[in-house]
Amino acid sequence: MLAAMEFFALNFVEVSRIGLGTWAIGGSEWGEVSEADAIAACLAIFDHGINLIDTAPIYGYGRAEELIGKAMRQHGHRERFFVATKAGLEWNERGVFANSDPARLRREFEDSLQRLNTDYVDLYQIHWPDTTIPIERAAETLLALYEEGRIRTIGVSNFSVVQMEAFRRVAPLHSNQPPYNLFERAIDDEVLPYCREHSIAVLTYSSLCRSLLAGRLTLETKFSEDDIRRVDPKFQPPRFAQYLQAVSRLDAFARERYGKTVLELAVRWVLDRPGVSAALWGAKRPSQLDAVDGIWGWKLDEAAMVEIDAIVRESVTDPVGPEYLTPEVRV
User: Fold this and answer.
1) Residues 6+ apart with CB under 8 A from 297
2) pLDDT per residue over 243-264, tens digit each?
3) How far is CA 219 from CA 211, 236, 241, in A?
4) Is the preceding omega at residue 274 within 30 degrees of 0, hence cis?
5) Which of 28, 124, 315, 324 could form a disulfide with 246 if both were Cys (CB 3.0 to 4.6 A apart)?
6) Among 59, 146, 194, 205, which one carries the catalytic annotation?
7) Distance (Å, rounded) from C-alpha 93 to C-alpha 27?
């Protein structure tokens, strides 16, 4: 299996093409997760050829970063982990807001270092663009951290081409992290081509579309009160039935053509799209990483891509994107 694993270079560092996404282990939007399970999941990545862990302060309001820090201490070799975290979101009783004020970014960085129990971050990303101040101000802050050697690479998340161009006028930009999956493809038009042209790595999140493409959900599936999918329009009727029909047909296609599951097909699809560097894979416990092994060693050809597109287009007649995730604009 080791020979089949895939990596990409991010500023001369070898990074796995699948990364552990830790939104779920924060425990605030995806149901409860035990500390033992979360730490075990962070340590299990190496069993599947993964060294990339992506997190953010907003995930469990600091808990995900703390759990990663505990996992790295338990492992004992910080250098084996490629840790990507973020800044630029604040939260209070009124909601979640994009905030890239330079002083706040500096404070967030120090807080993340403390929670992660480390003195550097491998990839530091602006989580969402703050439209209330010039993009260049956030770029200046990350450039300073980069020149100080406290962050190894600079990234953004959810940035448009215009916003990336503004950022790059001030600082090098090594990556962008957008949502991307079989059902959500907005970056195909501009973001992916731009990143390819300018050698900007693309790390996609929601590769399984909030578990829709994992193949386990049914119309009878119930989500807990603290589960973010209760407010996701994809999981509401009548759209939910349309998406589930697409998943069923995609699963049949994957099994017949490749002997694979819809989950394996969905992640392989992301990795085989031109310009995609890595796909993030959410897991609450080690067993949820087992299916990673089925991603390596095969690829989708152009004919398969065409058939997959037809299945999605015919099944989902009322598509909707991930716009509901966008934070509010602070006053």
Assistant:
1) 1, 4
2) 999 999 999 999 999 999 999 9
3) 14, 10, 7
4) no
5) 315
6) 59
7) 18
**How does DSSP assign 144-182, residue by residue?**
HHHHTTSEEEEEEES--HHHHHHHHTTS---EEE-B-BT
Do residues 182 and 322 make contact, with C-beta atoms less than 8 angstroms apart? no
- Please indicate whether residue 180 is annotated as part of the active site: no
Q: Which two tokens stand for residue 284?
A: 């609450």
> Which residues, other chains included, contact 119 with Cβ-Cβ below 8 Å and sequence gap of 6+?
113, 150
Per-residue model confidence as pLDDT tens digits over 267-286: 999 999 999 999 999 999 99
Q: In this structure, what are the phi and psi dihedrals at residue 23, rounded to the nearest 5 degrees? A: -55, -45
What does the pLDDT average to over 49-68? Answer: 96
What number of residues does the chain have?
A: 331
Residue 204 contacts residue 181 (beta carbons within 8 Å): yes
Give the CA distances from residue 231 to residues 186, 243, 313, in Å, rounded to whole numbers and listed in that order. 20, 16, 24
Q: SS in 3 state form for 18-87?
A: EEEECCHHHCCCECCCCHHHHHHHHHHHHHHCCCEEECCCCCCCCHHHHHHHHHHHHHCCHHHCEEEEEE
Task: Decide: helix, strand or coil at residue 7.
Answer: strand
Q: What is the pLDDT of residue 269?
A: 98
Partners of 203 in beta bridges: 278
Tell me the per-residue pLDDT of 134-152, one tens digit each, with 9 for 90 and over: 999 999 999 999 999 999 9
d(CA 123, CA 152): 6
Contacts of 228 (CB under 8 A, 6+ apart): 29, 30, 210
**Hunting for tokens 């493409």 — which residue is that?**
213
Q: Which two tokens stand for residue 142?
A: 């990350």
Beta strand ranges found along 220-291 (DSSP E): 278-282
Cα→Cα distances 46→104, 108, 174, 278, Å: 34, 28, 24, 16
pTM above the 0.85 mark? yes
